Amino acid sequence: MTNRNYDESSIEILEGLEAVRKRPGMYIGSVDGRGLHHLVWEIVDNAIDEALNGYGNEIIIELNKDGSVTVTDFGRGMPVGKHKSGKNTLEVIYTVLHAGGKFSSEGGYKTAGGLHGVGASVVNALSEWVEVEVCREKKRYLMRFENGGRKCSGLKELGPTNRTGSKVTFKPDPKIFSTTVFNFSTICERAQEEAFLLKNLKLTVKNNFDNEVKEYVYAEGLKEFMSYLHEDKDVLHETVAFSDESQGIKAEIAFQYTDSYQENTFSYVNLVRTKDGGTHETGFKTAFTKTINDYAREQGILKDKDSNFEGSDVREGLTSIIVVTIPENLLQFEGQTKGKLGTPEAKTAVENVVATQLMYFLHENKETAFNLIKKIQRASLAREAARKAKDEARAGKTNAKKSKEILSGKLANAQSKDYKHLELFLVEGDSAGGSAKKCRDSKFQAILPLRGKVLNTEKASLMDVEKNEELNTIVHCLGAGVGVNFDIDDIHYDKVIIMTDADTDGAHIQILLLTFFYRFMRELIEKGHVYIAMPPLYRVIKGKDMHYCYSDAELNSYREDGVKLDIQRYKGLGEMDADQLWDTTMDPEKRTLIRVSIEDAALCERKISVLMGNNAELRRDWIDKNIDFTLEEDYKVERNG
Question: Domain of 266?
């Protein structure tokens, strides 16, 4: 072991914004395309906070030709006077972490999601340059920063103006980010979501590369959001929306049942998405289930001898949108990225609003209420039947024998029983499956060949899944159940790796499998267990050297010097022998895996519904607007296993 000194000289102090540049992932999550776009959201969140507090009703986001982004709001304009620290206040906002106008009751914000002193300074730290223009008190000011937040000059007064607001332009630093190319569709999708959440707020997105402009403004707010989410779904009733205030916390709720079997909950706090839930979601689910049960007993649908409906019964097919507005003195997030709400008061407040407003709706809409409870009763009966079958499978040998029969001749299982190190490869075709079985490390790698394309489960029921041979085999392989009975703690493998040909058929199989996991085993994706293998497209022999190329760009890099190449294009996994498949795609020391994650649940739900639903026109329109087959997408990539 190397003997390294650890003493006073080992302790390094990072001044100013150096800490952000040193560890950007701590502040924005990653330095890939997701982290890049996070910079935009940090500035936009600040602009939205102005609108949320009643200052300005329009925000403009521009993608500029030089690779920079401009965000303009029409709020009050950031302060530009002398701060108590002795510096200009605008300089403090953009150069000092945790300095802002939203940390105290005197800061000018009753509610806020973004924090000027965190978001603005982090964006500055990770940019080549930032320009901030402020219109305030009849005057226009400008300040510029370069090279990770270093002030170029003092605050400049540019002259008189009649408008108010702030205009921030920044250019991300290519030394920090793996890509600095912003995606217009990604920006538009997020802007549209924000416009749904705040009625009558106009968000305009401009692509100055080709003069494309998108405008989003919604008078009906959450109702229009629900229509957007359910555009390709069969709904059981009109969207129900209500809002009220309790304990100083405002809750705005919308819900609608569809004929599907999945539950979808989208929650927000002060317009910030809480993808990991929190106390507001807990309050909603608790109150919703209790109110449905109370109503069912009040109406005599549930008798004294009957058990209450469980939460999973009540929420089957339910899509709900929860938006809470919390005063700054009560706001508690868990983690820097604000993904989970921790405010205890939010649970009680949402419970109070939902219990009152939902019961009122049920009494005023008796026919709809009875139809929904019939659906809940069917879900309860199906859950009980599935639970009974699962208990029998765990206790009896007959079902174990049946499972063994289903997997016999298909699954080449791993020798180890330590699931934390086991991998299951779902392989396209018997030929590739045969090669994978030959080359695998049988201690920890299992192989399951798939015959043909699996069922599209976007509109499928649990019974449809159980009848489908390929999907039923996958369910038995994983051993954790399916649908409402899926239990992540019972999973037999740590990694489920989809390994298909690098062509359109292979991509289609990937999408079908991902749709199945998303609809019937969503926690498998949420907990990071699903991966996509990356087989090479080409084998290139250049003189005495052999290389594998995973993209056309990589292949072209070998063509630059004019040396003659021997190129083999792999049309499928079956064209590789066992050694080649191991070296390129299965060896944990060399392979590249894409880990599948759900970054934005609302957008994910919408895209799967459009791409895998019955409306071909919607699907074609989305592909035309969003897919460029000459560009590479951003993925979360794990190298070396």
Answer: 222-385
